[in-house]
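REQUEST FORM: STRUCTURE PREDICTION
Request ID: SP-0412
Submitted by: Lab K.M.
Chain count: 1
Length (residues): 638
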Amino acid sequence: MSTLGSLLTAGPDLELTVAWPRHSITYRNAEIAGLAVLSSTELLKAGSTRTLPAGSLVLVIGEMPFRVRGSIAAALEALLQQMALDQCVGLVVSTAPGQPGHQPFPQSIRDLSDDLGIPLLVTTARSDRWAHVDAEIQHDRLTAAEQRAEQLNALVQQLPSQLADPKAMQRIADWLARALSVQVLVSETERVLAASPDTAAEHLAHAIIRQSVDCSTPDFDNGPHTQLIPLAPANGAQAVLAVARKSPFDNGELRLLHHAAKLLGLIEQACREYRAVATASHATRLAAVELLLEGEVSKARRIMQNLQPGMLDTEMARVFVVETSATRRDATLRRCETVAASRALVVADPQRRDRVLIIHPVWLDEPANSVVGELTRLVCALRPGASLGGSGTYSLSLLTDALNEATIAARFAVHDPGSVALSVQETDLITLLPPHASQRWAREILKPLTQTDTWDLLRDTLPTALAYPYTVAARRLELHRNTVMRRMTRAAELMGRDFTALTDRITVALALEVVTHREPSDPPAEARDNETPTLHTLLDTPQIHAWADSLLSTARTDRRDLLATASAWLTADAHLEPTARELGLSDVTVRSHLRALEAHLGRDLSSLDGMRDLYVALNHTTGKLSTAGASQVLNAVA
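STATUS: Completed
RESULT:
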């Protein structure tokens, strides 16, 4: 678009120079909307100071006298006043060749020029040389308008289909950098939102600090021309669009920058609100997961009802654990959320920075491997450095146990070639017990305790005290060690059992687990009058035999005699040195055998449940363990 500067450098035809002010650089960028021509006769005629087109350059043709005074001076002063009202950009008068540059303007007119901010120019060219200037100005304006329309259209095309698109700001910044040949920086007080090119932040930092903190004007001659535009001044946001280049910006480019800033402001607001909603959603999901792990199913359902109605209306669920590096956890979390969609609760583990938890409610009409398959493919895509552990199907009130199972599976997944270890329900001993018969048996075993007024206290204490030393159990239960010992002694007396014996500890622990894991249900009519089964009867079934054989099947294929090591280790109270002496092996070898056995079994052999499964399976398949030897092992672990 035509400016005063472009006319001054257009060539010798116009013979145009600036008469006043002497330092006219601030006026060179003034855009010219057209040329208004007045003759000297019209200037002197009454009413000649008619309304002038805004943004026009006023040309007075007809040579001015060497010294302007009297009526001509008064007419020029009136014209300047009118030009100021109509926002004209400059006044040009014709003078004779060789006349001094500041003439024919007297001091009074020069002072008025300074007051009104209108530069004074002179031309020695004939009036016919100005005939084409207005047409050229209009052509330039049309070209500039078409260019701005194309730029606005291109800018609108940069808008994303979703305003919260995290890459949208960078795309607009890249487009601005190309379209205006500028360096672009979109930033907040403490972070950069987008920069183009990548070095823009470094180059713009000094200009931003100087212009925003010192409130100084950039050096137009030596430094970059900088523009700082707030993205959303109405709501007090701190984000700004900063652009810089060596050449100045014209008005059209400034308007384009302000349009871009508005769009960036909308995107920044949408991203900010999306982050707030996402944070609230994540907090709600995390609260629901924590409640589920605490057994508060009803509260978790109420929390999720507003966020995702019906998700927790089922009674069963599986738990998955995705382990990765702490630096990749957030990206892994987002990908897990994408693949699980609305079918599962996906949260970052609040206890560990390298783990993602997934709780997948199980529905009867849903394919069994719908989420499992997606998670497996995801972990395969994220390898190396990612692994997946999964639990079997559990009641929603028992998801803590499901999480423990998934965590144990995740340990083995690290050593699995596919980085995936999924537990299935059929490999769980408890789930293989006949439901109604096991309930009758468990209730009969625990009957001496359930008929006392201390049943609630004993029910909470026994599972932990059977699995850990009393000191550890007291710490976990937040009780005094003597309190735990008194309760255990009382329970043993009521039941007539010896908790130092393996069979009694397994019997009571198994009965407690059956009662806890399986909610009471009405047995079939034909089963109500049946005799209460024994533990031997419950375990002596084809399903348990098949389970034991399957549990030890891969261990049998190992070139090392892992089962012999396991038998000796259990008999030796789970101590490495006696086991090594019995087998004639080193401690390191025995430890290696046990780790390999854990991988084969998918069990944690440092836990009571793991050793129970190993003991039952070995007795079913080899019959080599004695009750006394196993009792010593359980005492060592407990």
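NOTES: Residues 216-223, 625-638 have pLDDT under 50 and may be disordered.
Reviewed by: T.R.
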